[in-house]
Specification:
3% of the residues are buried. The longest helix is centred in the middle third of the chain and has 33 residues, at 31-63. The protein is mostly helical. The protein contains 2 helices and 2 strands; from the N terminus they run H-H-E-E. The chain starts with a helix and ends in an 8-residue tail after the last strand. The radius of gyration is 18 Å and the shape is elongated. Helix 1 (3-26) runs antiparallel to helix 2.
């Protein structure tokens, strides 16, 4: 999956999830709608988790050099 698509999927899913949480916190929807929103939120969470796992795998691959992992210090420059 292209990295732009993964990032877009993650960002879109996270934005929708935030909207659902806000809507549920307001409590202005019926129980049935709340359950539908909760179910959608679970699916969005899974989408976000998958995107994060894929990103983590890519980072691990990028950090691997000559068959061994080398961690480099983070500098905020």
């Amino acid at each position: 999956m292209p990295k732009k698509k993964i990032a877009t999927q993650f960002e879109d899913a996270l934005a929708e999830l935030e909207q659902l949480v806000t809507q549920l916190e307001q409590g202005d929807i019926s129980l049935e709608e709340s359950l539908k929103s909760f179910e959608r939120g679970v699916n969005l969470t899974r989408t976000c988790q998958k995107a994060l796992q894929e990103a983590e795998q890519k980072v691990q691959i990028l950090l691997e050099k000559n068959g061994t992992q080398t961690l480099e210090p983070f500098t905020d420059e």
